[in-house]
Write a structure and sequence with these properties.
By secondary structure, the chain is an alpha+beta fold. It is built from 6 helices and 4 strands. It has helices spanning 13-19, 32-51, 57-75, 117-120, 128-137, 150-161, and strands at residues 121-124, 139-144, 165-172, 178-184. Strands 1-2-4-3 form a 4-stranded antiparallel beta sheet. The radius of gyration is 53 Å and the shape is rod-shaped.
Length: 189
């Protein structure tokens, strides 16, 4: 219990300030009628509290609560930690939210096939022997991609030069490049 410093029979801080209200600030306007009414009300409260000393249970609870709070302040509030019981030796990451990708624009553009006619037919050969083949046998000679088949070469020549092909012979030269001999039909001279 709190002891009243003036032995006025106060049981709490609130009772003490009811007996001893703070003086008004200097220069503050005071209403004499209101001050008088407050004094009378304060005296009535004290008279009722003195008359009924049997109601000490709520005060006792408040005191116990205050003592508990004071103990917690001095000791420090201990936070109880709960530890998860692991039933397995291995540790697996917890499953979290996995959001599917929702891009604002596509990261890859649909690519055309890189193995087109420009990749298949690399360069035409313009050596003396190849010129002789053109004049005598109506045969063009090209360096082509190593992976190109005879059908790929035929389609590439049709697209690029718009001529009909009679036959195609291919060799792989000693330097590792593929050479194609393209014989044109007789209507192309």
């Amino acid at each position: 219990q709190l002891a009243c410093p003036l032995d006025l029979g106060c049981h709490s801080v609130r009772d003490f300030f009811a007996w001893n209200p703070m003086p008004p600030k200097k220069g503050a306007k005071t209403n004499p009628a209101a001050a008088e009414a407050a004094k009378i009300a304060g005296k009535k409260e004290v008279a009722t509290k003195k008359a009924a000393p049997a109601k000490r249970a709520p005060v006792k609870k408040a005191v116990e609560k205050a003592e508990k709070a004071a103990k917690a302040v001095t000791k420090g509030a201990a936070i109880k930690r709960t530890r998860k019981i692991h039933t397995s030796v291995q540790f697996h990451r917890p499953h979290t939210l996995r959001v599917a990708r929702n891009p604002k624009y596509p990261r890859t553009i649909s690519q055309r096939s890189k193995f087109d006619e420009y990749r298949i037919l690399r360069v035409p050969l313009t050596t003396e022997s190849s010129m002789k083949l053109i004049e005598d046998n109506n045969t063009l000679s090209f360096l082509v991609d190593l992976r190109a088949s005879k059908r790929n070469i035929r389609d590439a020549i049709k697209k690029m030069h718009k001529v009909k092909v009679a036959s195609i012979n291919t060799i792989i030269r000693p330097d590792g490049q593929k050479k194609a001999f393209v014989k044109l039909t007789s209507d192309h001279d």
